Amino acid sequence: MKKANKKISRxxxxxxxxxxxxxxxxxxxxxxxxIPKGRVTSYGAIAQYLGTKMSARMVGWAxxxxxxxxxxxxxxxxxxRNGMLTGKMHFSTPTEMEALxxxxxxxxxxxxxxxxxxxxxxxxxxxxxx
DNA sequence: GCATTGACGAAGG
DNA sequence: CCCTTCGCCAATG
Length: 130
Fold this sequence. Notes:
By secondary structure, the chain is mainly alpha-helical. The N terminus is likely disordered. The chain is built from seven helices and four strands; from the N terminus they run ααβααβαββαα. The strands form two sheets. A two-stranded parallel ribbon has the order 1-2. A two-stranded antiparallel ribbon has the order 3-4.
């Protein structure tokens, strides 16, 4: 049963939404929007929360489309496990991500979030899903 | 329908 | 301790 949890977003939650919008995407958006201000998380943590911890890449993929989603998704609060702003280049401007984080008192030093472990927000722990 | 890619992550050298 | 390689899943060509 350890590897049976990788497709929950597709198997158990078929695309009830419009074509092109998988539930996996909506799930990612929802989690990211629940990230408290001034906190950050990693792709892996979100993936683990969704059940597909092995595929943190999919989270990033979903966030790539999140830029075009209507409710603005605070993708700047999502960094990789090292605390690096790997997705900053995908923003409107490469400095946009840092600027947004700085407004939230999250400072970036040498491409890495300061006190990343302190500001880290794990959805699986903090959010306490079912 | 197969091959490549991608905002990651863990392990190995 | 830094760099390279492999794995994973979904989307795209």
